[in-house]
Write a structure and sequence with these properties.
The chain has 219 residues and is mainly β. It has two helices and 13 strands; from the N terminus they run ααβββββββββββββ. The longest helix has 20 residues. The N terminus is likely disordered.
């Protein structure tokens, strides 16, 4: 928890020009690489922990993601079942896998760049993000460089003011050749009407393949 708030303080002190010239430009370049892929498949293990006074509450799931130009399919697998989200370029459809009912969320100008989890970070404050440089990706087949980016979140208020996010952010490790995410940690300090807690979510890629200039690179 102390690490989270140290990150948030560091973000608030970072010069705006540095964020725009380094982290903002880096993220835009990585996003462009990812969107230029002919296709990509990723499987993430996802752990989520609520850290409350006196005890923690944890859960795990698997996230399977297939992406192509202008569309994607996301499957969440947990003890409660397999749930699917599909973006067809216009709408996001949500359903239980092999079910015959779905809900549709129409695309609006505000979310024209709608992306799947974990690439969607709607509360990210990219004007205060920091570029932490590069590190080895430590992939099985080859040791490509990965970019490391830290981005704080904008505080929010929801549920009629009964739930507030007071501070938080994400640390991303991204494969520089493909623009694909390898790990991400999201931490948020949440306050509700009755208590407060830290929400901590960690994505770690387990399998990954992508098409680059007609070739497939597998890890």
């Amino acid at each position: 928890m102390r690490r989270l708030f140290a990150i948030v303080v560091a973000f608030s002190m970072a010069p705006h020009a540095l964020a725009e010239n380094a982290a903002g430009r880096r993220w835009a370049e990585l996003k462009a690489k990812r969107q230029s892929l002919s296709g990509a498949h990723q499987e993430f293990s996802v752990s989520h922990t609520y850290k409350m006074a006196g005890h923690d509450q944890s859960s795990k799931l698997q996230l399977i993601l297939d992406m192509g130009p202008g569309h994607w399919r996301e499957v969440s697998v947990s003890g409660s079942g397999r749930f699917v989200r599909i973006f067809d370029g216009e709408n996001v459809l949500r359903m239980e896998e092999e079910g015959d009912e779905y809900t549709r969320a129409k695309r609006t100008p505000a979310d024209a760049d709608r992306e799947p989890l974990p690439y969607s970070l709607p509360d990210a404050d990219w004007s205060r993000a920091t570029d932490q440089g590069t590190q080895p990706c430590r992939l099985r087949e080859k040791d490509d460089p990965c970019a490391v980016i830290e981005v704080p979140f904008k505080p929010w208020v929801r549920d009629g003011g009964e739930r507030r996010m007071l501070g938080g952010g994400a640390r991303l490790v991204v494969h520089m050749e493909s623009g694909l995410l390898l790990t991400m940690r999201i931490s948020e300090s949440i306050q509700t009407k009755n208590n407060s807690f830290v929400s901590d979510t960690i994505y770690i890629v387990q399998k990954m393949s992508y098409g680059l200039a007609g070739d497939a690179s597998l890890f």
